[in-house]
Design brief:
2 copies of one chain form a homodimer. By secondary structure, chain A is mainly alpha-helical. The first copy, chain A, is 65% helix and 5% strand.
DNA sequence: AATTTCATGTAACCAGTTACATGATTCA
DNA sequence: TGAATCATGTAACTGGTTACATGAAATT
């Protein structure tokens, strides 16, 4: 009871709505035009999600001034919505998240600017990198143990997974260093 | 009508059953213990999937000899199942698949040994690599065009995507070269 | 006037998740 | 005997997909 579940799609929408108000249509466009991190472009996912979020009090409808006579309903993140967004973004990351929710973790990062502090974003990257390295270590052990008995394509697929996680770890390191350099204070 | 849809999970199970008979429990274990490519370990996904596959004639129950008195029902891929598996694995790959079904493509590859010929597997890798390079090209263009207006974390997330696809492309090249070298004939 | 784009919905469906439930077999 | 593992199920739920449907505003 009371523990209202919020889906990843809802957080994605909430993240966009925390920056500035959007209509359902605009949100849909944003999601579709991003070449990464895919959600379906069908209205059948966005509009029901918006209704759910509204019921939960995460977003509130807004009148968009005289911007254009189209856009019937603009939404913005409510204070409760921002709070929920922050809570989602600052959840401690576990090994399980790396394996099962990698994309969700990346989404958290992608939307974090303006919501989290520089320090919190850096902390996220450190956690991300650490968990990735641990998981890569496990994968290498698993590879050593089981590769001999595997099919060649199975083994290659496993190596692909290791490569991918390594690319992520390297990226996290680079991203962290870049963030540490730029905006040196404040 | 007649166009029986088969989910990715079902193909994963079918791929395992094409190698050798398994019980539902064994399949579940196989899926869970693989550190990559995740499906849930709950019986609520495997057993209904097996029933669906059985209805479709993709698998047939088998008596596992006197291996052990446990395992009540072993399944194996039927000829129709093998045919469906081959058809799935040899589907031409599109750019869309790279973006929306990357994991499915990898699963196709991982299970392909013993089902596809060496030439077909190599062809898959070439298609994979080609599509990845095209997509990476698009992402770089998109990055150049939109990066200035993006948030730093958004831009970094996009770069993460590019890195990941690049890692996949490099892997595909290495895998292809390895397969071309070993087993030099036959 | 016709077409395209903007803009929002909803109804049906379905696979996968969660949780609950059961019973047999092996092991301590 | 009791616990852990093997082994298979099912009922309820839910979010996302597909497809259908509508209408207004802008563009041609």
């Amino acid at each position: 009871m009371g523990a209202t579940w919020t889906s990843v799609l809802e957080f994605a929408l909430l993240g966009l709505l925390a920056r500035r108000p959007h209509s359902g249509y605009e949100l849909r466009r944003q999601l579709v035009e991003t070449p990464l991190k895919h959600f379906s472009d069908s209205p059948g996912s966005i509009y029901p999600a918006l209704r759910r979020m509204r019921r939960k009090g995460l977003i509130t409808p807004t009148r968009g001034g005289a911007a254009s006579r189209r856009c019937k309903t603009l939404f913005r993140a409510s204070p409760a919505g921002r709070k929920a967004l922050r809570a989602w973004m600052t959840q401690p990351m576990t090994r399980v998240d790396i394996v099962w929710s990698l994309n969700e973790m990346k989404l958290r990062f992608a939307l974090s600017e303006g919501i989290l502090s520089r320090g919190e974003i850096l902390h996220f990257l450190k956690e991300f990198e650490g968990n990735l390295h641990e998981h890569i270590g496990d994968l290498i052990v698993y590879h050593k143990l089981t590769a001999p008995g595997m099919s060649v394509t199975g083994r290659l697929a496993l190596e692909n997974g290791i490569d991918e996680f390594r690319a992520n770890a390297r990226w996290a390191g680079r991203a962290r260093r870049r963030l540490e350099l730029e905006k040196p204070d404040r």
